[in-house]
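ingest -> validate -> predict -> emit
validate: passed (alphabet ok, no gaps, 67 aa)
predict: started
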Amino acid sequence: MKFFAAVLAFAAVAVAYPSVPEHNAPVKRQNIVTNIDVSVPAMTDSQGNVVPFDATKVYLAAKANGL
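emit:
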């Protein structure tokens, strides 16, 4: 039973590992921006973009939906 679980785990890892033709490197999932100052507070807007934090511009989904 343990052997079956180990084989199943290895098979799951092999299937889940994304690869690309160039050097079998993992797929890049997001664009990395190098000019972000991590000491400045930030938030996401309603579209998911990272923007500087401003308490007056916080998107309230419940309020937008009339709740």
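Residues 2-64 form one domain.
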